[in-house]
Task: structure prediction
Amino acid sequence: MLVKLDEIRDGQYKQVNPSPIQERYLTNAEVCDLLKVSRRTLQRYRDEGRIAFSQVGATIRYKAADVERFLHDNYNPAFQEKNSRL
Result:
């Protein structure tokens, strides 16, 4: 999942001074696939304001950078000590 986001981000950085219209936008299906969540869960994230999106009519799109930010904001680091045994 993170590899795919890195590929999307790298594609953005190859462009020189990209304008906002040239940013990579993802569909519901692409974001559901990346996050491994259902469409209903993704809708709940939108309703709760947890993930940013753009909507024109019935079409919803997500900036790749916003999806990456969502992943980073929900990152939970390991809390076990390295030397502890299970």
